[in-house]
Amino acid sequence: VDFPFLVLLVSGGHCLLALVKNVADFYLLGTTIDDAPGEAFDK
């Protein structure tokens, strides 16, 4: 994968959107505040 790229990480307990400039340099654009994505399955 070539840099820079946009990544959306979704797991049962966390979710984040980040811009990755290189291996050691990334900028978080957004994260979950109160509800985890996994809670959608619980309801």
TrEMBL record:
<dbReference type="Pfam" id="PF00814">
    <property type="entry name" value="TsaD"/>
</dbReference>
<feature type="domain" description="Gcp-like">
    <location>
        <begin position="2"/>
        <end position="43"/>
    </location>
</feature>
<protein>
    <recommendedName>
        <fullName>Gcp-like domain-containing protein</fullName>
    </recommendedName>
</protein>
<dbReference type="GO" id="GO:0005739">
    <property type="term" value="C:mitochondrion"/>
</dbReference>
<dbReference type="InterPro" id="IPR000905">
    <property type="entry name" value="Gcp-like_dom"/>
</dbReference>
<dbReference type="InterPro" id="IPR017861">
    <property type="entry name" value="KAE1/TsaD"/>
</dbReference>
